[in-house]
Amino acid sequence: MSRKQKKTLARIIAAAVVFAVGLVMGIVFPESEGVTSPLFFVRTFSLMAAYLIAGFDVLLKAVWNILHGQVFDENFLMTIASIGAMVIGEYSEGAAVMIFYQVGELFQSVAVGKSRRSISDMMDINPEFANVERDGEVSEVEPDEVQVGDIVVIKPGERVPLDGVVTFGASSLNTAALTGESALREVAEGDEIISGCVNGDGLLKIRVTKLYSDSTVAKILELVENSSANKATTENFITRFARVYTPIVVIAAVLLAVIPTVVIGLTAGEWDWGDWVYRALTFLVVSCPCALVISVPLSYFGGIGGASRHGIMIKGANYLEQLAKAKTFVFDKTGTLTKGSFSVTENHPEGISEKELLSLCAAAEQISNHPIAASVVKAAKANGEIPKAENAREIAGFGVEAEVDGKKISAGNARLMNRIGLEIAEAEAAGTVVYCAVDGIYRGYILVADEIKEQSKTALAELKALGAEKTVMLTGDRKLTAEKVAETIGLDEVRSQLLPDGKVKALEKIYEAKPAKSTLAYVGDGMNDAPSLARADVGIAMGALGSDAAIEAADIVLMNDNIENLPLSVRIARKTRRIVTENIVFALGVKIAVLVLAALGIGNMWLAVFADVGVSVIAIVNAMRCMRISRKKNAHL
To answer: What average pLDDT is seen over the chain?
Structure first.
């Protein structure tokens, strides 16, 4: 509990003790009801003191807001209702209204604190300093003062301050704050590491590759800080509802106090202001929209906080709401449903040796960052040195071209072969085929295969169990390879051999065919899939640890490679939406019922206190359930 919460609790306890003294005096010494009795003044003073101890800040806020043009809020309602009760002699009820209102505020503060604590674990990834090595000396500097190319020394137990490449040492990194996973990641010289991880038991030196402002940790912190800016549709509605609702109930309360009294006074000659004013004040207490205004955003905030505990970063409540309605899920293949770790499995040369085919392809592929190219280069290096390539260029969606020892090498897909005028029979193989031509003559192909993630099949099955009506894979891979993956993991549809712009067009058609009132989620690796991530109702970056494009383009970022976090995020979203609905129905139902009773004179202010504070506390406690959800597939939502 924070210092502020402890002070609030102390005030509530003090006010409750003084309030209890006043109540006991009224019970033990009933004659003190006489206004001339000293005991009356002592009892009244006790109740007034309890009122001021509990509610002086509410009174100040109400006056401040009125002076600044913000009249109709919960502070105004509580102030008018409690002061009105005091004026008509209901001191105990006026004090009780303020004490219990503060109890509700304390519950709200504690609940928000717990939700923030889940997200604050992410904020702890922010590095306080960096040990920079310059001219053989190590000095401690601010992370934003470190330049690209600087060498940073990271001691055991320290947090990695910036993104970089290991130049010295070997160690294990704790990535739990980023991914939600407890497994350690082993790193050695040449490995890339990202900021926010905690170094294990080895001394590391890294060469900085990004400025702090562009680092992974800075991107994530910005994402977390801005997550509350994007409100859900329901949340925005409740905010607008409260602005209109509050002045209406104030006017209704005034009319309730005046019209019946005047009508009865003119017709029967009895001017009983006290009874109808009391009903109006009770009406005001009941009408305070705290339960809605507090519990709805708190539910979404709790859902975002609960997701962050599992390494699922959600940029705002609106994306949580969109995901809850998702019925169509569209996937990229490489790095999403498959591991993205390719290896050469077959080598089919024509007119040259296997080693020469592999060597020439690798020489041209060295300029590409594509996983397929990397696997070819890795296999060639294992067989010896790779010749130097000149005038190399990458042709998006086709492959690469380069000059090696005066020969023009073309390596890529079948479309590249057609582009240079070669008619070839496409290889029927479950994998990615890299065709090769030397000086315009076809010289064979290399087969590269990608492994399917072990969790892909179970994740797809769980999505369907959650009500997914269509699952589709969009990929640039060959039809045979794509269909093999789709069949293995249980996808409904697959569309293959798509260029980047073709993916967006295919996504548009799927979007048009999706069920009414549902949404479409696209899951990709956050790099080449950025246009599709942006086009979908909710874009989910998969396996995006350290990817700038993923953090910027996606609405939700799964901070590790476990695709089972996708159905988990759907369950979190749907649980949050259901709790929001429960709170709205419960709060409005109780309030409407008690408002009617108050207007009829059946309910008193104690019942009004329950309808306001009691309902708020129950709604807040219910909202906190959004933070708790198990990874187990059959866990109760």
So the answer is: 81
